[in-house]
UniProtKB/TrEMBL annotation:
<protein>
    <recommendedName>
        <fullName>Nicotinate phosphoribosyltransferase</fullName>
        <ecNumber>6.3.4.21</ecNumber>
    </recommendedName>
</protein>
<comment type="function">
    <text>Catalyzes the first step in the biosynthesis of NAD from nicotinic acid, the ATP-dependent synthesis of beta-nicotinate D-ribonucleotide from nicotinate and 5-phospho-D-ribose 1-phosphate.</text>
</comment>
<keyword id="KW-0662">Pyridine nucleotide biosynthesis</keyword>
<keyword id="KW-0436">Ligase</keyword>
<comment type="pathway">
    <text>Cofactor biosynthesis; NAD(+) biosynthesis; nicotinate D-ribonucleotide from nicotinate: step 1/1.</text>
</comment>
<keyword id="KW-0328">Glycosyltransferase</keyword>
<dbReference type="GO" id="GO:0004516">
    <property type="term" value="F:nicotinate phosphoribosyltransferase activity"/>
</dbReference>
<keyword id="KW-0808">Transferase</keyword>
<dbReference type="GO" id="GO:0034355">
    <property type="term" value="P:NAD+ biosynthetic process via the salvage pathway"/>
</dbReference>
<dbReference type="InterPro" id="IPR006405">
    <property type="entry name" value="Nic_PRibTrfase_pncB"/>
</dbReference>
<dbReference type="InterPro" id="IPR040727">
    <property type="entry name" value="NAPRTase_N"/>
</dbReference>
<dbReference type="Pfam" id="PF17767">
    <property type="entry name" value="NAPRTase_N"/>
</dbReference>
<keyword id="KW-0597">Phosphoprotein</keyword>
<feature type="domain" description="Nicotinate phosphoribosyltransferase N-terminal">
    <location>
        <begin position="20"/>
        <end position="144"/>
    </location>
</feature>
<dbReference type="GO" id="GO:0016757">
    <property type="term" value="F:glycosyltransferase activity"/>
</dbReference>
<dbReference type="GO" id="GO:0005829">
    <property type="term" value="C:cytosol"/>
</dbReference>
<feature type="domain" description="Nicotinate/nicotinamide phosphoribosyltransferase">
    <location>
        <begin position="165"/>
        <end position="335"/>
    </location>
</feature>
């Protein structure tokens, strides 16, 4: 595959169309709807999850900015249309309809970094049935994964307290998932990533120095340390557990002096080793040398390390897999559609254990003594919702991302990610403190649904 600059602001991606990042039945439904006349019916689709992963207290929204990036390029070129035609996925009439397709609807929802709970209307997509149905798979694949990573990152960053966490999960997942995970991790509270493409695309802080192989390729550990310091300076971080940690720390300080920036420990009893290394560094005069630990960390390991003299953490596998919950089980459901007479009609699914709440939604959060106490989801017709007056202290959770096809750029790019990072920290501080408990429990606040 060739590479080209696909996304806005020079974001390089593999040459593909986001409009084909979908399940086939989105296009077959479009084809049938165009033939029977329902494709032009106005519709409202909603993204929500029926439940959080078992025992989780809250979720964190992430990925909306990536959806907006993809939406800018959600159209099919000649090769894409030929593929659909050659495979007989859709009829020639639908191919014609797709030639100039651009999403012209409206999208609103929870901003990135916001907390979500069961039945929170995380995203609402309004437009014709034809254009809305094509977005389903793309929206769900982004929100389900990115929000899972951000939710795990939030738990990890909370467990780490004020010590920064860095993403090192690129080698533990799909290569493009690694880029998405790095971005989502920062939304959820991480400070940077080892993934250079993510750092380039989104302006994230990049971190990394050397692996064990760098030490092993040299004739001695001293030679490796001297080489790294010569290349990166005394402020670099040296990996000290290739052979004997105590000897490595001694050699590191001899080579770099007490100005050595940091050391990294990647094996063993991390708490015990960190304590010994801290005492050794201090005894050698390297009192400002920091200690970073890695090695299959998750939120529980980070919590166990709170009393250890550790300065930062590198997290890999458990971050990019959502710490055991790699998806948020979000769904994309039709909640309102235009009837044959032109009026909007609330619709709902009644399947056992999969029923949905009909109608478009408003969403608010109420507070008592500056702490969130409930999520309020108000459902009804556009007219009834327009007449609804929330309590004065309720916080409106919905923001506009796309207005009749026009994307609000404030929700894209580096600044949006940093704003989401800061917003998430504030939103987390407004939840009851039990939200940060690692013990299994119910959602930290209830979701109260009202149908007008």
């Amino acid at each position: 595959m060739q590479l080209h600059h696909l996304c806005r602001k020079g974001l390089a991606m593999v040459d593909y169309s986001p409009a084909l990042m979908t399940d086939m039945y989105e296009y077959t439904m479009l084809d049938a709807a165009l033939k029977d006349g329902t494709a032009d019916r106005k519709c409202v689709f909603e993204v929500f999850t029926r439940h959080l992963p078992e025992g989780r207290r809250y979720g964190v929204v992430a990925g909306t900015g990536r959806i907006l990036d993809a939406l800018e390029h959600f159209h099919l070129d000649e090769a894409d249309l030929k593929f659909l035609a050659d495979r007989h996925v859709v009829s020639p009439e639908t191919i014609k309809w797709l030639e100039n397709f651009h999403f012209s609807g409206t999208i609103r929802g929870y901003r990135e970094g916001e907390m979500f709970f069961p039945n929170s209307p995380i995203l609402q997509v309004e437009g014709t049935f034809g254009e809305c149905t094509l977005l389903e798979t793309l929206i769900l694949s982004v929100l389900n994964y990115d929000s899972a990573v951000a939710s795990a990152a939030s738990r990890m960053a909370s467990a780490a307290k004020d010590r920064p966490c860095m993403d090192m999960g690129g080698r533990r997942t799909n290569e493009w998932a690694a880029v998405a995970a790095a971005r989502a991790a920062v939304v959820g509270g991480f400070k940077g990533t080892a993934n250079l493409l993510a750092a380039q695309l989104y302006g994230l802080k990049a971190i990394g120095t050397a692996a064990h192989c760098f030490t092993l390729v040299h004739d001695s550990e001293r030679d490796a340390f001297e080489s790294q310091i010569e290349a990166l300076g005394k402020n670099t971080t040296l990996l000290v557990d290739t052979y004997n940690i105590e000897e490595a720390v001694k050699t590191a300080v001899e080579v770099a002096g007490p100005e050595l920036g940091g050391v990294r420990i990647d094996s063993g009893d991390l708490a015990a080793m960190a304590q010994r290394v801290r005492n050794q560094l201090d005894a050698l005069g390297a009192t400002n040398t920091t200690i970073t630990v890695t090695n299959d960390l998750d939120e529980y390991a980070l919590a166990a390390l709170q009393t250890a003299p550790v300065d930062s953490y590198g997290v890999g596998t458990m971050l990019v897999t959502g710490s055991g919950a790699p998806t948020c089980a979000m769904v994309y459901k039709l909640t309102e559609r235009e009837g044959a007479d032109g009026t909007m009609v609330p619709v709902m699914k009644k399947s056992k254990d999969k029923a949905t709440v009909p109608g478009r939604k408003l969403a608010f959060r109420s507070y008592e003594y500056a702490l969130a106490e409930a999520e309020h989801v108000i459902s009804g017709s556009e007219e009834k919702l327009a007449g609804f007056t929330p309590e004065p202290t309720w916080k409106n959770l919905l923001v506009d991302f796309v207005d009749h096809g026009h994307i609000d750029a404030q929700w894209q790019g580096h600044d949006a990610i940093m704003a989401a990072h800061d917003y998430h920290a504030k939103a987390l501080s407004e939840l009851p403190i039990t939200a940060q408990s690692l013990m299994k429990g119910e959602p930290v606040i209830p979701t109260e649904t009202q149908v007008l």
